[in-house]
Specification:
Distance between the termini: 61 Å
Number of helices: 15
Radius of gyration: 27 Å
Number of strands: 10
Strand order of the largest sheet: 4-3-5-6-10-9
Mean pLDDT: 89
Structural class: alpha/beta
Strand content: 5-15%
Helix content: 40-55%
Shape: globular
Largest sheet: 6 strands, parallel
């Protein structure tokens, strides 16, 4: 399957040789030993051969000729199948392929999904209470995080959108790391200068999140070019809404034409904030775009943890082995609001939400674990309580930590600090001194 692109190239070259009479040995040697008459005869022979061939070989594409002028309706094409391992009730599909790992790994992956869910809920509640400025959760999409992260190498480079905290969690980002960033204290990755959920970790090969859609995608193509032939790849997460941006096209085309090992990991959850997928595109999701760029492709049930793991592992193997980009589309559903700035009830019905949330990946995986005898409801309840207690304890500590000094917002920009930034820094100091009552700074460092 993954060698198809290489095979197609070989066929194209073979058809070109067959239809045009190109020889396998050096063309320059042939020209050097051929007379002008011989060359004219060769051209005439090639023309006669090509005129009788059904192969259509052009500079821009290789295909076959037809006498039919039929306009093909691509909407009639069969959709790309969706790979699945677990049924909704947690049973295995017929002839299921499951990851070759010990049962304890299944339990760990499940527990990491639960941790993501609990962390999301606590931090969302903190926003409603006015304790943090913003939050974007991942309810219903937890399998896309853990299933993908568990299939990657720790040295693979990750470009995230803003809904992949489970990837960081699996790689070793701690509860204090998450909470400190969201409350913007001195220990937070963003040093108080970033929006909550804009996580990042150079140590974990996870580039800092940026909210504008698709900005990470061309960067991922460049990073993929840098890691060619290293045994590693780049994984770029994006939503189907980001695929509507011009940056997405540029990124796909760069990756394909430069043959770079990038996994384009699309989390298709049906909505770009309030815009449903039906208003974003007419084709077969995002996976169908792979053919237009000459990429390999796989589509997976994004609510099936085991299927996501296998699909990502196979996409990674294809990308690294062939040094080519792979499009992976995970079909899932955004179970909650887009973010704390959104009210999804304004544009989708309760019935719709209930229908899709019945496919929740956490519930499905728990049924599988229990049916296999790997886990119990009692162990699950104990784990959930432990995680919630841990998160609340971390929050309690994080909210008491000092905030970065106001002056520090000018750090890490230019060194040495140029005069115009020095002037702005002094203007800010003067403003705060004049209106000190309006800007409480008791928790801030001097």
């Amino acid at each position: 399957m993954w060698g198809g692109a290489v095979a197609r190239r070989g066929v194209a070259v073979g058809l070109l040789r067959q239809s045009l009479g190109v020889r396998c040995k050096s063309a320059s040697a042939t020209v050097a030993t051929s007379s002008s008459g011989d060359r004219a005869g060769d051209r005439a022979s090639a023309t006669r051969s090509a005129s009788k061939s059904n192969h259509a070989v052009f500079a821009g594409a290789t295909t076959s000729f037809t006498s039919s002028s039929h306009v093909r309706c691509t909407l009639d094409d069969e959709p790309i199948p969706c790979f699945r391992v677990l049924n909704l009730d947690g049973t295995l599909v017929e002839n299921a392929e499951i990851p070759d790992v010990p049962p304890k790994d299944f339990v760990q992956w499940y527990q990491e999904m639960v941790t993501v869910s609990i962390l999301d809920r606590v931090l969302s509640d903190m926003h409603r209470q006015g304790r943090i400025s913003f939050y974007a959760g991942s309810y219903g999409e937890e399998a896309t995080h853990i299933g993908s992260a568990s299939a990657l190498d720790s040295n693979d480079i990750v470009y995230s959108q803003y809904r992949e905290i489970g990837v960081l969690l699996h790689r070793g980002y701690t509860l204090p790391d998450f909470v400190n960033q969201c409350v913007s204290n001195i220990h937070g990755h963003g040093k108080g200068r970033q929006v909550p959920v804009h996580y990042g970790s150079p140590e974990l090969k996870f580039h800092t999140v940026s909210s504008p859609l698709a900005t990470q995608m061309p960067q991922a193509s460049g990073a993929g070019y840098a890691v060619r032939n290293t045994g590693n790849c780049v994984v770029c997460f994006f939503g189907e809404g980001a695929a509507s941006e011009g940056d997405a096209h540029a990124a796909f085309n760069f990756a394909a034409t430069l043959d770079v090992p990038v996994i384009w990991w699309c989390r298709n959850n049906g909505y770009a904030i309030s815009t449903p997928s039906s208003e974003q595109y007419r084709g077969d999701g995002i996976a169908s775009r792979a053919a237009g760029y000459g990429m390999d492709v796989i589509r997976v049930d994004g609510n099936d943890l085991l299927a996501v793991h296998i699909a990502t592992a196979k996409a990674r193997d294809a990308a690294v082995t062939n040094s080519r980009p792979v499009m992976l589309e995970a079909l899932t559903y955004r179970g909650g609001d887009h973010s704390t700035s959104d009210d999804a009830s304004a544009y989708r019905t309760d019935e719709e939400v209930i229908h899709y949330n019945a496919q929740n990946p956490i519930d499905r995986m728990l049924r599988f674990l229990i049916a296999q005898g790997y886990y119990t409801n009692e162990e699950d309840a104990a784990h959930r309580k432990l995680v919630r207690d841990d998160v609340l304890a971390v929050v309690k500590v994080a909210e008491k930590e000092p905030l970065p000094s106001i002056d520090s917002m000018f750090d890490d920009v230019l060194e040495p600090m140029p005069p115009h930034l020095q002037k702005q820094q002094q203007e800010l100091r003067d403003h705060l001194a004049l209106y000190r009552k309006e800007y409480p700074t008791s928790r801030r460092l001097d």
